[in-house]
Amino acid sequence: GLPQSVVITEVGPRDGLQNESLFVATDKKIEWINRLSDAGFRHIEVSSFVHPKWIPQLADAVEVFHGIKRAKGVVYSALVPNERGLERAFEARVDAVSIFMSASESHNQKNINKSIRETYPVLRPVVESAKAAGLPVRGYVSTVFGCPYEGNVDVNQVLSVVDSLLDMGVDELSLGDTIGVAVPTQVTELIARLSKEVPLSRIALHFHDTYGMAMANVWAGLLAGIERFDGSLGGLGGCPYAPGASGNVATDDLLYLFQKLGVETGVNREQALLAAAWFEQNVGRTLPSHAMSVLRGQ
Ligand code: HMG
Ligand code: MG
């Protein structure tokens, strides 16, 4: 049957903004994140401590962390690619660290400038130091269902990266359909393989919606026993180093699904929609989610 509740990680402030052409002002980002915590989100990916030349939209990560209201019970996390990034993350007083790499060699190279083999020794000390400081660590694996440069990605390659990240000590894995090419049968098959290696409670699914399959893939994940899903309010998102990728599955659409299913999220859907409507005024374009187009039509 369906779970009683799910955990949503709102990645909009990070994934949603990293690919936008417009730089959203720091104070707008801060207000955006405050509105998210007010709406009931308990896991918010605030920004990214990557090289600001690679992702200029998030160059203000430290300022954003220092500006937000720290609501009780909310975990404010960020992407960290290496030890330099972790220093900045500590300075910003993050609550949790997300490391990231890809299951496919070429996306890993384009995205973080290293081969898969070269990446492990960079990430291992990040995980060790984060854990020594008492911070939980999430490990993203990108391109698990397809790569923008290589096409199909072998499931064994995904399992090998997953094993290495677990071996490093990550607490949670987030499996990324970076370019939004997955179909539900792939999700079912991958989760079946993974369930032999790792408790499903430690796996989150991170879908992008390029072909409109994201919601169907969430459903497949739910039926397979997954209880953690990433989304971006309004449906912004994408990776600048993954050509053709479109936005994340829209959190506001996820909230509709879960509300109708009677699955608790802890998020107030009306308040989340109002927050998205506010944000739309500041991001300079129409948000692509279904729920937002319904709201605009009312
Ligand atoms: P690099 O150039 O190979 O770095 O970049 P390096 O280690 O050779 O260092 C070069 C210089 O950069 C040095 O400075 C470092 O100090 C500095 P110098 O000594 O020359 O003056 N430097 C830094 N400065 C600030 N912060 C840092 C940092 N690191 C080095 N963290 C690097 C390697 C990983 C840094 C770069 O490739 C990068 O920043 N990549 C990030 C790309 C990115 O953010 N992509 C999007 C996120 S992933 C994603 O969206 C997928 C996901 O959503 C899941 C999914 O959908 O699949 C998570
Ligand atoms: Mg993503």
Automatic annotation (TrEMBL):
Family assignment from sequence similarity: Belongs to the HMG-CoA lyase family.
Biological-process GO terms, alphabetical: ketone body biosynthetic process; L-leucine catabolic process
Listed InterPro entries: Aldolase_TIM (IPR013785), HMGL (IPR043594), PYR_CT (IPR000891)
Species of the source: Alicyclobacillus ferrooxydans
Descriptive protein name: Hydroxymethylglutaryl-CoA lyase
Pyruvate carboxyltransferase domain segment(s): 6-273
Keywords recorded for this protein, A-Z: Lyase, Metal-binding
Gene Ontology molecular-function annotations: hydroxymethylglutaryl-CoA lyase activity; metal ion binding
Pfam families the UniProt entry points to: HMGL-like
